[in-house]
């Protein structure tokens, strides 16, 4: 049985825009989550699950990933009693695509996590505290780190800042720069509020894009389409790229020093459009 959305399953995780978190204690939600348009799906064994249900949720995930499903998994932080058991249980599951490490504050936490999994398993470092933000560059360069993600709500609890984009700009910018320094794919922003309407999701995701982040977490499958659209090339960008590439193929001459950079950007937009299935959307 095919569980995963085919388009999303074929998309490299380095290009994933929407990252849907699914409560690992609710096994009945796994199938619908995997079938939706989310570029990547994360079974969440951490924040969504109380301590007395951790083992139950872990068993759900292991069973799903051993019987045809494929997904990322958010594991508990290294300073908890659950981290080692999470990794031991996941290390042999054939459907594990990678793990999201909660409460990442130091580079060695990522490396220790990667060492307990099958060789090459990517680790998405979820940074949720002031300490993590200040260590982001080192975390991005740590062996095993695949991408950085921003745990906005816990960061706000830790620091007392508001949800105003200006108040969060330093942290977001830090993750973007750290990702670039570490030669990682673009950073992933925190999620819209669960009850956010479509307009609010688009508004927040445009802030994400303006900061240079290329992915966004989601707590609801209803937010996935808005996130995907706002983090994909726009219709104007697609038209511009197509016109430039067609002119270049027809023999357009180099006009000035900006031509080659513009051509490279047009090709990048075209490649993303192919990956996201936008040309004929």
Written account of the structure:
By secondary structure, this protein is of the alpha/beta class. It is 46% helix and 14% strand. An eight-stranded parallel beta sheet has the order 6-5-4-3-2-1-8-7. Strand 4, helix 5 (107-115) and strand 5 form a beta-alpha-beta unit. The longest helix has 18 residues, at 259-276. Its cofactor is Mg(2+). This is HpcH/HpaI aldolase/citrate lyase family protein. Keywords: Lyase, Magnesium, Metal-binding. GO terms for molecular function: lyase activity.
Strand % is 5-15%
| Tally of contiguous helical segments | 13
| Number of beta-strand segments | 8
Mean pLDDT score: 93
Unreliable spans: none
- How would you write the strand order of the largest sheet? 6-5-4-3-2-1-8-7
Shape: globular
Distance between the amino and carboxyl termini: 26 Å
Pfam family, one: HpcH_HpaI
Cofactor: Mg(2+)
GO molecular function: lyase activity
Keywords: Lyase, Magnesium, Metal-binding
Briefly, what is this?
It comes from Glutamicibacter bergerei. By secondary structure, this protein is of the alpha/beta class.
Which descriptors would you attach to this protein?
single chain; 46% helix; globular
Task: Please outline the helices and strands.
Blueprint: H1 6-10, E1 18-23, H2 30-35, E2 40-44, H3 54-65, E3 71-75, H4 83-90, E4 96-101, H5 107-115, E5 123-127, H6 130-134, H7 136-140, E6 145-150, H8 152-159, H9 165-181, E7 188-189, H10 198-210, E8 215-218, H11 224-230, H12 235-249, H13 259-276
Parallel strand pairs: 1-2, 1-8, 2-3, 3-4, 4-5, 5-6, 7-8
Helix pairs in contact: 10-11, 12-13
């Amino acid at each position: 049985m095919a569980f995963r959305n085919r388009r999303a399953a074929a998309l490299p995780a380095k290009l994933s825009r929407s990252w849907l978190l699914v409560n690992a204690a609710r096994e009945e939600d796994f199938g619908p989550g995997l079938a939706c348009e989310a570029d990547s799906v994360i079974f969440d064994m951490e924040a969504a699950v109380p301590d007395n249900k951790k083992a139950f949720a872990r068993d759900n995930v292991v069973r799903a990933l051993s019987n045809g499903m494929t997904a990322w998994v958010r594991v508990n932080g290294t300073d908890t009693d659950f981290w080692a058991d999470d990794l031991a249980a996941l290390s042999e599951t054939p459907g594990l695509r990678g793990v999201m490490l909660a409460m990442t504050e130091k580079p060695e936490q990522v490396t220790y996590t990667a060492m307990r999994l099958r060789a090459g398993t990517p680790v998405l470092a979820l940074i949720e505290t002031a300490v993590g933000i200040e260590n982001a560059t080192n975390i991005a360069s740590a062996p095993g780190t695949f991408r950085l993600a921003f745990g906005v709500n816990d960061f706000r609890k830790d620091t007392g800042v508001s949800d105003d984009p200006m108040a969060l700009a330093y942290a977001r910018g830090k993750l973007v720069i750290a990702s670039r320094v570490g030669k990682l794919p673009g950073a992933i922003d925190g999620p819209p509020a669960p009850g956010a309407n479509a307009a609010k999701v688009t508004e927040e995701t445009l802030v994400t894009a303006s900061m240079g982040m290329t992915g966004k977490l989601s707590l609801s499958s209803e937010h996935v389409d808005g996130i995907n659209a706002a983090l994909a090339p726009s219709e104007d960008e697609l038209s511009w790229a197509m016109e430039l590439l067609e002119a270049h193929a027809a023999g357009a001459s180099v006009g000035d020093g900006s031509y080659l950079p513009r051509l490279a950007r047009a090709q990048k937009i075209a490649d993303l459009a192919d990956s996201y299935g936008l040309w004929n959307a």
